Amino acid sequence: MAGSTLENTERIVRLMGQVAISNREYFCELDGVVGDGDFGTSLATGFEAVTGDKWAALNRSNPGSFLKDVAMTIMSNVGGATGTLWGTAFLRAGVAAGDKEELTAEDAVAMMRAAAEGMKKRGRSDLGDKTLLDAFIPATDEFERVLQDGGSAFEALKSAAVSGRRQCEETRPWIAKRGRASYSGERSCDTYDAGAVAVAMMAEKIVEDWSP
């Protein structure tokens, strides 16, 4: 992905927004099986605010400041768990980035780790609860593993996207332990977590756009 870190950060956020907005109904359908069915609308609303009228006004002094503004825009435009969790993820990533103008792949790992920890705390959830963390954390682990093995950032991202998609399938038989889906007990078995699917699809979209 050519360009400065800030340009690439902007591009990634836009790609995430494209997935959220174009899959609004699909994510609502997934969420509606055992949830309240509003995840797709909430996620799309947040990214519409970010990539729409608010886009030009976002702080671009460095990638961290940009991500913090993305976080505040989401949280101020989306209520409920979706706004809180996704806003927290961007906020924690921005804090981890600090005031650096250029970020390394290792910095990206630290940012993803910070985002995951923020979502754990806000959602009072962890691996095994059948939430987006069950795709996000393994994908982060895989991203870091490939880098440590000498792979490029693109190779790491590609492998991470595969891991995220695989985890969506592996968690499908599980019983949800957090969120509205947890109220349905065993009915949540053999269903997809909409947040985990969104994470996997966003990673796949970024890989597709980044492909040499």
Structural notes for this entry:
The model has no long low-confidence stretch (mean pLDDT 90). The chain has a single domain (5-210), classed as DhaL domain (Serine Threonine Protein Phosphatase 5, Tetratricopeptide repeat), CATH 1.25.40. The chain is mainly α. The chain contains nine helices and no strands. It is globular, with a radius of gyration of 16 Å. Helix 3 crosses helix 5 (80-97) and helix 7 packs antiparallel against helix 8. The longest helix has 19 residues, at 105-123.
Question: Topology, pairings included?
Answer:
Layout: H1 5-22, H2 24-32, H3 39-51, H4 63-77, H5 80-97, H6 105-123, H7 133-148, H8 153-171, H9 194-210
Helix pairs in contact: 1-3, 1-9, 2-3, 2-9, 3-4, 3-5, 4-5, 5-6, 6-7, 7-8, 7-9, 8-9
CA-based shape: globular
Number of DSSP strand runs: 0
Model regions low in confidence, pLDDT < 50 over at least 5 residues: none
The portion of residues forming beta strands comes to under 5%
Terminal CA distance reads 8 Å
Mean pLDDT: 90
Q: Tell me the CATH superfamily.
A: DhaL domain
At the first level of CATH, what is the class?
Mainly Alpha
What is the number of helices? 9
Portion in helices: 55-70%
Give a short account of the largest sheet: none
Topology pattern, helix = H, strand = E: HHHHHHHHH
Structural class, by secondary structure, is: mainly alpha
CATH topology: Serine Threonine Protein Phosphatase 5, Tetratricopeptide repeat
- Count of all domains: 1
Radius of gyration of CA atoms, rounded to a whole number: 16 Å
> Based on the structure given, which CATH architecture is correct?
Alpha Horseshoe
